[in-house]
Every structure is written in structure tokens, then in C-alpha cells.
């Protein structure tokens, strides 16, 4: 599904922070992306999410060479990827319902056509009571679940999560991990970027470890 | 289902089938769904927030700058209208002067001069000043109560020309010189030329001031729009991340900022029009019905006319367009930065 071949990345004229990355992400797979702070996890996620272009190497996403795609084609490709940000990135002026429905709205769908889907998903992640609440009144865990719901509402083939447990207590982190496992079982490939060793120890999954700009894959 | 119970259940049973089922449910299932507040109850469901502080501040800037630009354009329209009126009014007037010649009947000479003037093509009105009227013309210099019978005071004949018609002044001058003793024709050519130069200078000055105000308006509205857009960067980013195309994101902001620009522009434009109308009424009160004609002849009428209102409307549209285009430009720039 995703193939990296000798990918390198540097910002401006600075040193290369990602070097010779070669790995693949298979359909319906689950992997942790880890490494010390500053190792380049977020940069690698941005490469996966097509908001950064590599300075060298080849990235193939869903059988497309990303270097040759136009901005609009990349946007269409991005719809097949869901992202959960560490800082949630919910829009404070929209209700939980409207935040979660945003990817469907962008597709040009009318509210009546997705109302059932969104409310069912919100119930599923335990936010049914907060359907019409604004993000500022949600707790950290609720915001995180709303962000996850937004990431999966359009049924992406790949889910990327950047430190999804960074702002929550261990108990909630464990619950969120179970949520990601359930999503993976429903057919979505999952990549969770984290440096939380305890979290990774809870689930036996493939690990991609970044160190000194290189990636080490532990299947 | 409450959040806690969801997670407890997630630990004990597979949720895969539930998620799949939930996502597959569509339109058909409408019974028992939670009550949905209408859009009017849910408040702002626009992707770009309507009434943020930045948006209201931008609308205020647009309103103020549109007001200033519209008042300036109105003032310039009045100056241009007045200048044109001076030129046309003065160029429609000519004066025949008949000097008294010893041994000649001046009244007879005046009669001949009037007949020659009336016969000239384009002349619509000829009026000879009486002896008393001629004497009164000298009063500001010689004072009143004097007997001017012994002085050779020339007599004046006012000639009015039809609007837009060029009278052959050379032919009229020749016929007066040959046919009337002591007659001369003054077509005010030198005065008109000076007036024309002054009017042109006034128009050029007015247009220059209008250009500067318009440029200041465009710049200030552009920077105010950029400032308002800065607070919307997170929205642009989120839309980008959920797969929105550039055209979709740009159109969301362009529509919103066009509305903001029109709202602010209309407010400023209408306020300016009301001010100009009020100024016209106030100037009418000061001059009064009798003095109004004299003031109008000297300074022109205090009205911007239909063309002036059209210019104000065009300014509103221009400024609204600038806000919309600037927002689009900022969106495109932001997306380029993200990538």
C-alpha cells in the first residue's frame, strides 16, 4: 500500500534528518513508529501524509508515485488517509458533529446524507452525549476521541496517529489503544507514532524505530 | 452509549462488526435517532466563522475606508461638475459694448446692435441694459447719488448663446464694427481660457486626491484582510488535512470575505451618500431659494449626480472584490507553506 525507497529529507540547507528510509506498510497492518524525541517521527508522518516532499528517494502511495502528482491529485489521495493529531486540531466554532463530519462535507455531501453515519460513529466512540457540544467544553480524552472519529469517518485505508496518548492518563491511553486495534480489525492500516514504551508493550505489533535519521524495522 | 461503557465493552468484545454495521447504516434508518437541532439552533455551522473579532474588525476597516473613498469621490464629482458648469455658463455669455459718439443717437445704435446680434445663428437671448442699469453698474466704483448724464458712459448688451452651439464671433464682430458706430464685441475669450485652465487644474487635483485615497484604501483593506486571515490559518490547515482541494478551501474563504467586504463597503458607502445628501441640504438652507441660483452659478450645485453614486457603488464592489481576492491569495500562500 505504501512503499518508501531510499527516502531522505532535509529542511532547507540543514542536515539530513531522515536518511535512506526503505520500508513498506501493508494493507490491514498495525505498526508503532517510535524513537527518541527529535528523531523525526512527525516528519516521517508528514511524508506519509503528503504534506512534505522528500528531498530524495521514492514514495509510492496506493500505487501512485507521489512526486509526479498534482496538488489536487494529492488532495484526493489524502482522503484515503486519516490523521489524528497530538493537539487534536478540532475547529472550536463547530460542534463535535460538524467537526467529525468535516471530511464528508469536503467531499460535497449534504448533511442529510451523512447524519446517520456521524451520529452512529459518535455513539461508538462514546461521544453521543456531546454530539452538539463545542470542543472547548470537551475534556482531553473526549477531544482525542472526536479527532479519531473525524479521522475515520470517511473510512480511510490508512490511519496515522501522532502521539495519540501524549495528553491523556495511562488508563485512557490503554482505552485509546484498544480503539485503534478495533479500527485495524475493521480493515484500516494503522501507524501510531509514540515514544511511550509501556503503550507499545501492551500490543504485539510491528515496530518502526527511528534513530539517528535511519529506520529500523522490527516485524 | 456513555464513553466509559464503550471502552469497557471494547475490552471484552470485538467492536469490528459494530463499527462496520454503524458505517453501513444509511438513510433507511431514521427511527429513534437523537433529535437534531436545526441549523438556526446550532448556531454557526459555516466552516469559516462568521462573527469573529477579526471579521468584525475587518468589516469596520472596510466601512471606514469605503466611507473616506466615497466622500472623496463625491467631493471630486462636485468639483468636476462645478468646473464644467463654470466653463459652459461663462462660454455662453457675450457682451456688446456701445460707446456714445457725439452726434450719433446711442439708442438707435443700440437698436441696430441688438438686431445684428439677434440675427446671428445660435443667439437665444439679447438684452440691452438701460441707462439707469448702466449707471448702477458704476455705483460700486463711483458711489451713488451722482449725476452721470454728462459722462460718456458706454451701454452694455448681454448676449446669451444656445447651449452647445458655437457662434461665429468673428462674423458678428465684423458686422457690429461695420454697422454700429462705437460698438465692440467681448466674447470673454481670455477669461474663459483662464477659467478653463483653473477648472482643469481643479479636476486634475481632485482626481489625484481620489487616486491617493483609493490607493490607501486598497492597501489598508489588503493588509487588514491579511490580518483577519492569520487567525483562520488553523482552519485552512484542517481543511487541507481532511483532503479538501485548494479550490474548495479558497472558495470557502473567498465567499466569506466577499460578504464581509460587501457588508462593510455597503455600510461605508451608504453613510457617505447620506453625508453628501445632508451636506447638499445644509448648503441649500444657508443659501436659501433666491441665493441658490447664484451660488450654483458660482460654485456649481452641491450634488454628485447619478454618476457620482455609480462611482460610490463601484468603489464598494471594488473593495469587496479586493477582500475576496486577498483572502484567496492568503489561502493559496498558506497551502504552499504547508506543503
How does this model look, in words?
- The complex is a heterodimer of chains A (219) and B (339).
- Chain A is α/β, with parallel strands linked by helices and 219 residues long.
- Chain A has helices at 41-48, 71-78, 96-100, 102-106, 111-124, 140-152, 170-185, 197-201, and strands at residues 2-10, 16-25, 30-34, 56-61, 64-65, 81-84, 158-162, 189-193, 206-211, 214-218.
- Chain A has a single domain, classed as P-loop containing nucleotide triphosphate hydrolases (Rossmann fold).
- In chain A, the strands form two sheets. A six-stranded mixed beta sheet of chain A has the order 6-7-8-3-9-10, with helices on both faces.
- In chain A, a hairpin with a 2-residue loop joins strand 4 and strand 5 (64-65).
- Chain B folds into two domains: 48-88 and 193-338, no CATH class; 100-181, no CATH class.
- Chain B has helices at 3-12, 16-24, 39-42, 53-91, 106-119, 131-142, 169-179, 189-230, 233-241, 246-299, 305-338, and strands at residues 93-98, 123-128, 155-161, 183-186.
- Classes of the chains: A alpha/beta (219), B alpha+beta (339).
How would you summarize this macromolecular structure in one to three sentences?
Chain A is α/β, with parallel strands linked by helices.
